[in-house]
Amino acid sequence: MKVRLGIAIRRGKNKNPTKPQIRRIAHAFCAQGVLNSKASVDGGRKMAAVILESLGALWVQNLRGKLALGLFSSHSILPQSHIHTSASLEISRKWEKKNKIVYPPQLPGEPRRPAEIYHCRRQIKYSKDKMWYLAKLIRGMSIDQALAQLEFSDKKGAQIIKEVLLEAQDMAVRDHNVEFRSNLYIAESTSGRGQYLKRIRYHGRGRFGIMEKVFCHYFVKLVEGPPPPPEAPKTAVTHAKEYIQELRNRTIIHAL
């Protein structure tokens, strides 16, 4: 059996037989062994050993080729992991790290520095543009006034922002030594673009399109104390003066 298998492999056009070729030869010999009643059990075992040896040699040869070409990947040989480690989902968390800022000691008689609370919620299944209108609505309000405005809004994002504000209010009392829960105002409130997911939208006649599942982030900054008075709207004369001042402050390069 071993000799006949070697002869059959050498008769092929390719000196290095592939897996399908070895399988076809193995099936042919198995069929011949079934029809031939004089085939012994030892011959079948030897044939199986030769086939496994040839398959192992082919696997090692294929692995060497991948290593030589730099095509070796852990996904092709090693079992795949269920942990997502791509760079697209790595978030810097810069907004939350602002809570760990340590300021220098204050001088005697200096007014007490108000507490600042940074909080956010990421990957919200909502549009960043729709969230921006709600974020701008409560900007500059006290915490109680903002919660009242969001309570009577029928928008989906309003309830999400309300939950984030309540979480930030609890953080202020628990972690930032704020004495009164209502003595807070919203200094910053904005939204950002999250990680979008691309999916296939199937059309008729075998065509397709790419759709995006949108996500957004919401960021809020609470400051201890009463809210500042609203700024007076600028007039046309004020805008013109600022524009002229910006033109005068320009730096003209490549000139005398």
Report how far the terminal alpha carbons are from each other. 95 Å
User: How much helix, percentage-wise, in residues?
Assistant: 40-55%
Continuous helix count: 9
Please give the number of β-strands: 5
Walk across the major sheet and give the strand order.
1-5-2
Shape: elongated
Order of helices and strands: HHHHHEHHHEEEEH
Proper CATH architecture of the largest domain: Alpha-Beta Complex
CATH topology of the largest domain: Ribosomal Protein L22, Chain A
Subcellular location: Mitochondrion
Organism: Odocoileus virginianus (White-tailed deer)
GO cellular component, one term: mitochondrial large ribosomal subunit
Pfam family, one: Ribosomal_L22
Notes on the structure:
The protein has 256 residues and is of the alpha+beta class. It has two domains: 74 residues; 126 residues, Ribosomal protein L22/L17 (Ribosomal Protein L22, Chain A, Alpha-Beta Complex). It has nine helices and five strands. The protein has a three-stranded antiparallel sheet with strand order 1-5-2. It has a two-stranded antiparallel sheet with strand order 3-4. Strand 3 and strand 4 form a beta hairpin. The longest helix has 29 residues. The radius of gyration is 36 Å and the shape is elongated.
